[in-house]
Amino acid sequence: MEVFSDFQCPACKSLYDATNRQLMDNYVNTGKVYLIHRDFPLPMHAHSRVAAQYSRAAAQIGKLEAVEEVLFQNQDKWEASGDVDGTVAKVLSPAEMTKVRALVKSGAVDASIAKDQALGNNTYRVSQTPTTIFHANGQTYPYAGVMSWDILKQFLDQLLGGK
Amino acid sequence: MMQSSPLNFRRAVIWLGRLILGPVFIYAGYSKAFLPNSHFWPWFFLKFSLSTNIANFAFQVDAFKLLPPWGVQFVAHTLPFTEIVLGFLVLIGWQLRIFGTMLAAIMVGFSVVVTRAYLLHMNINCGCFATPQPINMEKVMEDAAMAVLAVLMAVFAMIEARKPHPWSAPSAAAPATMPATK
């Protein structure tokens, strides 16, 4: 599963809240599903690019999950204040924050975000977030929007059962 | 001699309403339920596609901050299919007084809700069709115009239903048009 997501998008937060924990516990950690987070910051969201930079930098030091969670859980706060740095600092140690800030400032993560956006725009024609691309049995199925855990679980079980 | 049906203003409005609002409602319902996710085979794909499209629509309904969660789910699961059925019935003109009135009521409801969202400066998607549409003055005017057309169509349908059909047999009190032969 590739999930094209924007940290400032309310629908992305809804999808994350509804499905992420169970998906990780029941399918990703058990090796049934390979989950890829793709950053797709939308132009109408003023702080989503910065949030993507921080999450990508956190991923490089192995802290993506924690940062992803704190960004989504506090979306309404940093959306209003623009304080992505302060939000991320809640879950990282000072040493980790130093590394993350250095990565963001150097622009080292920008290329990978641009690559995700190019993939979304050119290959999958992503027009909204969240968009989930399911790859199964040699086929690709793009799905736009939110989905409930129950329905997603049924769908995954069917896809996995089709092997 | 049989008279052809006169096209008066009321009938013109009724036809206009049926031809514009019918297809608009059919497309609106179809796009909510069957777009943008349109993988429909095999069966579990149809189920997943419908569910995600309806979940998307529920998200848009919830953004208006008008209904409790159960209300949001009720609207999301029923409105698309209601729109399709009503649109079809209005388009073919069957029982227009009843279904035209229902359509008009829904259309007035849409107009009120969209106008409210505009006045509250809510930066949300209209949720009218599959493609995202911002709520701006253009959208407000568009919905208001369709609401007016829907109401006029329903009212005129009621008025026309009370009048004798121009092709029905003349009443006994009406004078004969042909002179009696000797």
What is the first-to-last residue Cα distance of chain A? Answer: 16 Å
- The helical percent of chain B reads 55-70%
Indicate how many domains the architecture of chain A comprises: 1
Coarse structural class of chain B = mainly alpha
What fraction of the residues of chain A are assigned to beta strands by DSSP? Answer: 5-15%
Structural class of chain A: alpha+beta
Low-confidence stretches of chain A: none
Head-to-tail CA distance between termini of chain B: 21 Å
Sketch the topology of chain B as an H/E string, one letter per element.
HHHHH
DSSP helical segment count of chain A = 8
Shape of chain A: globular
The 3D shape of chain B can be described as: globular
- The CATH superfamily of chain A turns out to be Glutaredoxin
Rg calc of chain B? 22 Å
Q: Tell me the fraction of residues in β-strands of chain B, as a range.
A: under 5%
Uncertain residue ranges of chain B: none
Number of strands of chain A: 4
Q: H/E series of chain A, N to C?
A: EHEHHHHHHEEH
Mean pLDDT of chain A equals 93
Architecture overview:
The complex is a heterodimer of chains A (163) and B (182). Chain A has a single domain (2-161), classed as Glutaredoxin, CATH 3.40.30. Chain A contains 8 helices and 4 strands; from the N terminus they run βαβααααααββα. Chain A has helices at residues 10-28, 48-60, 64-73, 75-81, 84-89, 94-106, 110-123, 149-161; strands at residues 2-5, 36-39, 131-136, 139-144. In chain A, strands 2-1-3-4 form a 4-stranded mixed sheet, covered by helices on one side. In chain A, helix 2 packs antiparallel against helix 3 (64-73) and helix 2 crosses helix 6. Chain A starts with a strand and ends with a helix. Chain B has helices at 9-34, 43-63, 69-92, 96-119, 137-162. In chain B, helix 1 (9-34) crosses helix 5 (137-162). The longest helix of chain B has 26 residues, at 9-34. The radius of gyration of chain B is 22 Å and the shape is globular.
